[in-house]
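Hey, resending since the last one bounced:
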Amino acid sequence: MLEAVTALGSVFFDPYLLFLIFATTIIGIVIGVLPGLGATTGAALLLPFTLTMEPVHAIAVLATIYVAATFAGSITAILINTPGTSAAAATTFDGFPLAQRGEAGRALGVAVVSSTFGGVVSVIVLCFAAPLLARVAYEFRPPEYFALTIFGLSMLASISAGGAIKNLIGGVFGVWLSTIGAERVTTIERFMFGNYELYEGLGFVPVMIGLFAMSELLVQSKVANQALEFVKMKAVQLPSREDYKKIWKTVLRSSGIGTFIGILPAEGATVASMIGYSEAKRWSKNKEEFGKGSIEGIAGAESANNAATGGAMVPTMVLGIPGSGTTAIILVGLMVHGLRPGPYLFTEQVNSVYQIFGSMLVANIMFLLMGLYAAKIFARISLVPINLLWPIVFALSVIGAYALNSSLLDIWIVLIFGVLGFFARRFGFAVAPIAVGLILGKMVEVNLQNSLKIFNGEWWQIFTQPLAVFFLILAFLGLCGPQLFAMYKKSRMSE
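The C-alpha cells again:
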C-alpha cells in the first residue's frame, strides 16, 4: 500500500510528467471543443506519437486526453449548442438554454466543478477498486477469461448508438478481423491473400486511426459549411452557495452512477451522462426546469460522464476488456508498450499503474483551472473552419500510421477502415463495437484454445467451472434479457 501511495504522489514531483500532462490537457481541451473530434479520435491520432515515450508517460498522455476531452465537450455544448463529444450531448439540454438567458458563465462554472468532482471521485474509486478486482482476477484461468470476454462482447448490445443488433454485427465483424493472419498454434494462414505483411494480423493502431479519425473526417466533410450560433460570455462563474445547495446531491449521485456505468465493459461516458441526466430529473424537486436551463441537469450529465472515465479504466487495466471506445485505444497503448493488462500488472508494475492513476488525478485538477480561467478562449477554437481543420487531421492520420512501421500497408489500412467506418456510420452502425471486437477477438480465440488444452478438447468442461458459467449467464441475460422481460411483461398484461 505504501508503495502505491508513493507512486501516486511521485507524479506531483516529476517535472517532465507534469509538463506532459499540462500540455496534453490543453490538447485534450482543444480536441474536446472541436465538434466531431472527441476523446476517441484524439487518442487515436496521438497513439502513434506516444510510441517513442516511456510506457508510463505514453499511457498518462492517452489517459489525460481522455479526461480532458470528455470535460471540454461541455464548453461547446453550452455555448454553441453543439457537443464537442457525444458524452456532452445531455449537457446541451439545459446548458444552451441557460446560456441563451445570459447565464453562460454560470452554466460553465457548474459544468467545470461537476466534471472535476466526478473525475476525482472516479480516480479515487479506481485506486481502490482496481487492486481489489485484480485479486479476484488472480483466480481466473483460461475458461474464466474466455467466458469473461464473451460477456464483454455481449455488452456491446447495450451501447446507446446504433442499436443492439447493429452493435452485435459490428462486434462479430471485429472478431472476424482479429482472425486475419497466421493462426498462432498451427501457423495456418487466414485471409492474408498472399500478403505476408499481414502474418501477425492487422495492426491495432492503423485500424483505430482509420475507424475513428479518418471516418470522422469523411462524416464531417458533409457539414463543412455549417454555420454555428455562438453565445457571448464575459467569464466563467463559480457556482454560488445557492447553486451548491441545489446540485450537491445530484453531483454525488451522478458521480456514483458514472463510475459504476464506466466499470461495465463496453459502456462509457455517453451512456453514463444520459443516465446521470435522467436520474437528476427523476430526483429533482424542480422537474419543470429541465430542458429550460436547469443547473441540476448540467451537474447530473457532467459529473456522470467524467466519472465514467476513471470507471472505464478499471476493466481495461484489470481484465483487459475496454470500458469504452477511448479505453480500447488506451488498451492498445498498454499492449504496444509491453504493459500486459491483467491482475499481474498490479504486482509486477505497481509503480507504473499508480503513476497512471496519479496522472489522471492531476489532469482533473488542471482542467478545473483551465476551465475556470480559459474556457472563453478555448470556446473560440470551436469556430475554426472545418475545411481547415480536417486536412490537418488527415495529415496527422497518415503520418502517424506510416511512422509506426514505415509501411505503406498501414496507410492503406487507415484509408480502407476510414471508408469502412464512414459507410458503417452512414447506415447506423457504431464503429466502437468493431474496435472492441477486434481487441477481444484475439482474447476469445487464445483463451478458448488454452481451455481446450486444459480439458483435452472436451469443450463442455467449460460449463463445469462455476465462475465461467456465471459470466456466460450474464452474457445470455445481456443479450436476451430485454426480450425475455418484454415477453414476460406482455404476458402479464394479457392476463
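The mean pLDDT is 80.

Sorry for the duplicate.
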